[in-house]
Automatic annotation (TrEMBL):
This is Protein FAR1-RELATED SEQUENCE. The lineage of its organism: Eukaryota, Viridiplantae, Streptophyta, Embryophyta, Tracheophyta. Coiled coil: none annotated. Keywords: Metal-binding, Nucleus, Zinc, Zinc-finger. InterPro entries: FAR1_DNA_bnd_dom, FHY3/FAR1, MULE_transposase_dom, Znf_PMZ, Znf_SWIM. It comes from Apostasia shenzhenica.
Length: 794
């Protein structure tokens, strides 16, 4: 009996490069009869190239391909196999910006449920052993790829192969595959087909394997073109929803090469399709490493290519180390083709940048409260710019409890890399807390942005900050806002899920309904986990990488995990608009920065005017009361029109609920509040401090009392809203009390302190003098504050 397994790697692996995936137990003998010539003499110096090179944190490469080839060569020398474990793409242009290469024995195989169906089960060989060896490279803003994570230790035995062979596709220039072609092993067949594919102009992945039930050896292997199959979400999508413009990776190509084992000595080509549905490349830019315990076979790009793995750009070659043929690029080489100077010029233009800086400088001269700062690299080239005006500071003072970093513009590569700190005001309208042009998306750049934004906002961190999923951004938030609750945008999570699970959405109409129910209707963590597991089991998604990632970060996006944190989350038929919907109508990356600033000012003027009109309407008009309730009359006097409508809806809905006392034996009483025998909500009331809470946590989340608490108030004769349940940020007086001069003074002092720190840290002696002087000045400031406070108290 034989068993078949599919080996399509999915979206997180590079299918067109053989990096020893789950089938890396291959035993390469490389004896393909008389068909194959020994090409060991092609690159005999190749082994010398790798002899003294070890990976290290901070190692830089000119490209992802160079990093990949280096690590594969290193792995071949040490004696382990490599596969791609994780990738990350840029939201701007879909290019790969992060790669994680791991030992092929990384992780564990998921165990299927234990059940007995009467059939004899065979014991599969264990391929994964939980090895932690890995290397991760990230593309930096200056174009190079840097090693950011590295684990060199393995938890299993590694053994260097006896030799490395280098074979070019031209070695088989006269050979074409045909049905009935024989090979001494499936590894030999694989090597031949990879070489054939490289010479013809396409890439290969392993599609299907079948093993013997007797000894677990392979008895069938099917190799296909990497464009085999199709990408369903490219053909089926909702035009009303904005989709990322992904390049289709599958084009239903039928090309394939299947070999089966006839006896212990022969492998026969049993199926063959040579026609492709797409254009073939002249020469694929790939180098394949096929490894076994005995040797490593390297399929070079072409016969003339005596190509060694590219050295790291900050590796210093020594005489005789094998790197003499490379133009080694130093990490401080100012002539690099990917220098940040070119990036800045292509993103903005030097003339545009100067105009923008002049404009920002003029704004600061006209208003001392205006704040701007820019970041430069070692060549004094501008990389990032941030600014915030007085109105942004005022808006943050009043409504800065919840902040969203809107990066939607950066998702579209045709638009400027514009980001904005936003929030919602007391009319549930969008307000701006500052703007930035951000070329780089590294942790250092986000840290710089958050630190300077915090300075501009007078040093007051938010309660919650909402962003898209971005690892570098997450790390920066944890560093700059350690006490803030970081949450991921629900819209972004759902949008990304539709992309990553497009085939599931298309195949099962019920999936989206159940997925949303799990996210939005789970009242407890236990309920969420049960619903999640039920979805994985029902749709066979336990091995889905995207859902595994989502579950690992569920505390940042699933509402049940942060329902007790204030997020200003109020359900509305119309949500505050996304920046991209506005800006994509009027400008793109070709727009000059001068015009961009003008359009931005006009957009902000519209926001301010809209807020002013709503302020006037709330002050001069009275809303219509559905019922003559004293509590509604009070709310109409206090809340803005928009918030009152939300409150009145909750109040009216409360009239349809039933209440049942379940525990009233003391100061604290508990009640069940329900409607039509549906889900119960537990409301707890403390009679001593007049505090009431509900299991739905609506007040904690939004600052508006829920219908369940309002129903209890009716029952216990509370006829007016307690003062501690009226949030100022939702009232007509939300903007009273803002002191602009305080923010201006704070920003001015921060600028002086930064200059002081730069000058005071130039040498140990100067540092000691600066520190002593600062301590003296701080003592005088505290004494002055105390003296002023005592005089005011008289």
């Amino acid at each position: 009996m034989e068993s078949t397994s599919t080996e399509d790697e999915g979206s997180l692996r590079e299918n067109d490069v053989d990096l020893n995936n789950e089938n890396m137990e291959q035993q390469m003998t490389m004896e393909v009869g008389s068909h194959f010539a020994d090409s060991e003499n092609l690159l005999t110096s190749h082994e010398e190239t790798l002899e003294n090179v070890e990976p290290f944190i901070g190692m830089e490469f000119e490209s992802e391909e160079a990093a990949k080839l280096f690590y594969m060569a290193y792995a071949s020398r040490v004696g382990f196999s490599v596969r791609i474990s994780k990738s990350r793409r840029s939201r701007n242009d879909e290019s790969i910006i992060m790669r994680r290469f791991v030992c092929s024995k990384e992780g564990f195989h998921l165990k299927k449920g234990n059940y007995d169906d009467g059939k004899k089960k065979r014991k599969r060989a264990t391929i994964r052993e939980g090895c932690n060896a890995m290397i991760e490279v990230i593309q930096k803003y200056y174009g190079r790829w840097v090693v950011t994570k590295l684990v060199k230790e393995h938890n299993h035995v590694v053994a260097a192969p006896s030799r490395v062979r280098y074979i070019a596709p031209e070695a088989y220039a006269g050979m074409e595959p045909f049905v009935g072609m024989e090979f001494p092993s499936h590894e030999a067949a694989q090597t031949f087909y990879y070489a054939y594919a490289s010479r013809i102009g396409f890439d290969v992945r392993i599609r299907l394997s079948r093993r013997s039930t007797r000894d677990e050896t392979f008895v069938m292997r099917r190799f296909v073109c990497t464009k085999e199959g199709f990408t369903p979400f490219e053909e089926n999508f909702d035009e009303s929803k904005k989709k990322r413009n992904r390049t289709p990776s599958r084009q239903e190509c039928k090309a394939m090469f299947e070999v089966i084992k006839k006896d212990s000595e022969r492998w026969i080509v049993s199926k063959l399709v040579t026609d492709h549905t797409h254009d073939l490349a002249v020469a694929p830019n790939k180098v394949h490493y096929i490894q076994s315990q005995s040797e490593v076979v390297v399929l070079a790009k072409n016969a003339s290519s005596r190509e060694k793995p590219a050295p790291p750009v900050n590796f210093k070659p020594q005489l005789g180390d094998g790197f003499g043929d490379f133009d080694v690029l130093s990490s401080n080489d100012q002539d690099s083709r990917t220098d940040l100077r070119n990036a800045c010029q292509s993103a903005f233009g030097l003339e545009d940048l100067q105009i923008l800086l002049d404009s920002l400088k003029k704004m600061q001269a006209e208003s001392p409260a205006f704040f701007y700062v820019f970041q430069v690299d070692k060549n004094n080239q501008i990389t990032n710019i941030f600014w915030a005006d007085a109105k942004a500071k005022m808006a943050y003072y009043c409504f800065g409890d919840v902040v969203t970093l809107d990066t939607s513009c950066k998702e579209n590569k045709s638009m400027l890399p514009f980001v904005m700190f936003t929030g919602v005001n007391h009319h549930l309208q969008s307000v701006a807390f500052g703007c930035a042009l951000l070329i780089d998306e590294s942790e250092a750049s986000f840290t710089w942005l958050f630190e300077n934004w915090l300075v501009a906002m007078c040093g007051r961190p938010p309660i919650s900050i909402v962003t898209d999923y971005h690892e570098a951004m997450t790390a920066a938030i944890a560093r700059v806002f350690p006490d803030a609750r970081h949450q991921l945008s629900r819209y972004h999570i759902l949008k990304k899920s539709q992309e990553e699970l497009s085939n599931v959405y298309l195949a099962h109409d019920s999936f989206e309904i159940e997925f949303l129910k799990c996210i939005d209707e789970s009242e407890t963590v236990e309920t969420f986990e049960l619903h999640w597991k039920s979805i994985l089991d029902k749709y066979d998604l336990s091995d889905n990488c995207w859902l595994q990632l989502l579950h690992s970060i569920r505390h940042k996006w699933a509402s049940v995990y942060h329902k007790d944190t204030f997020t200003a989350d109020i359900s509305l038929p119309e949500k505050p608009e996304s920046l991209s919907l506005f800006f994509e109508k009027y400008f793109n990356r070709k727009t000059s920065l001068q015009i961009f600033v003008t359009i931005l000012d006009q957009a902000m003027a519209v926001w301010y005017e809209r807020e002013a009109l709503e302020d006037f309407a709330s002050s001069c008009t009275r809303p219509t009361l559905i019922t003559p309730s004293n509590m509604l009359k009070q709310a109409a006097e206090i809340y803005t029109r928009t918030i009152f409508e939300v409150f009145q809806k909750e109040f009216v809905e409360s009239l349809g609920y039933f209440i049942d006392n379940i525990d009233s034996g003391g100061v604290i009483s508990k009640y069940n509040v329900t409607k039509d025998d549906s889900h119960n909500f537990v409301v707890t009331h403390n009679s001593s401090d007049k505090r009431t809470s509900c299991s739905c946590c609506m007040f904690e989340r939004s600052g508006i009392l829920c219908r369940h608490i309002l129903r209890l108030f009716l029952s216990i004769n509370v006829r007016a809203l307690p003062e501690h349940y009226i949030l100022k940020r939702w009232t007509k007086d939300a903007k009273n009390g803002f002191v602009l001069d305080e923010c201006a003074r704070y920003s001015d002092l921060v600028c002086h302190v930064i200059r002081y720190a730069k000058e005071g840290s130039t040498s140990p002696d100067v540092f000691n003098i600066a520190k002593h002087a600062l301590q003296m000045a701080f003592t005088e400031v505290l004494a002055a504050k105390k003296d002023i406070a005592s005089r005011c108290a008289m």
